[in-house]
Amino acid sequence: MRGKMGMISNDCKEYILPRTLIKPTLAAMITPATDEQMDDSIDGRTVDTEAWRRRVGSFIRDHAPLRPPPLCPEISLHLADDMAGAWAAAEAALAATRVPPPFWSVAWVGGQALARYLLDHPDRVAGRHLVDVGSGSGLVAIAAAMAGAGSVTACDLDPLARVAIAMNAATNHATVEIDPADPLTTTAMDADIVVAGDLWYERQIAEKITPWLRRQAAAGRTVLVGDKRRAFFPRSGLEPLADYAVPTSQDLESEALTTAGVWRLESGF
Prior knowledge:
Layout: E1 7-9, E2 14-16, H1 27-30, H2 35-38, E3 41-42, E4 45-46, H3 50-63, E5 66-67, E6 77-78, H4 83-93, H5 109-120, E7 129-133, H6 139-146, E8 151-155, H7 159-171, E9 177-179, E10 193-197, H8 203-218, E11 222-227, E12 238-247, H9 250-253, E13 257-265
Parallel strand pairs: 7-8, 7-10, 8-9, 10-11
Antiparallel strand pairs: 1-2, 3-4, 5-6, 11-13, 12-13
């Protein structure tokens, strides 16, 4: 990646993201939430009103056409050809300068692997309540709903992502509840299964998300994770479930084809 999208290390094939590009879903894990984050505003203006959601929906339709992610052709998502370009367009369309990066506009490879696994193994989710942490486009949540989960909650702190999740779920006739709260602040989560994909881009995020997920596993919940084995992905306490070859792009992953896996995360490491 270049310019606004940061750089990629050729040594470990990992993103080196500037601080402003840390996944918005995880930003509150690194620094305490500000008043602006807590009142769900952008540039000091309250968002998540009906009028604002309509405006964002129009932007998403115009700049992120519906298409299937390579590994999940049965699902259609609003995906952008150029994430950096979509970010600039969002700032212009919303007349704002602090719009979160549109991570929701990409079907990240770990999420694709998780979604494919759930679609191919509906017995893992049938009748159970699943929570998707850092949902982004909603791909994994939608796959869980299509696979027969009893109920599905998608968590994302980015208000634009929440609009995208709602649109994507409606397109795929999937019932997904959308929760704006930070799940890491929840002491008693109502979930049978917790899933997380592509949340191991940098050390500070990994040091927050991995122990929290292990605590969910220790509480008796099934924790499934998807990633391409990035530098800060855990190397122990994992039960491997599946590997997938995922077509991607040089701009996103520095290669045209990458391998992403799915694991069950264990508690005692």
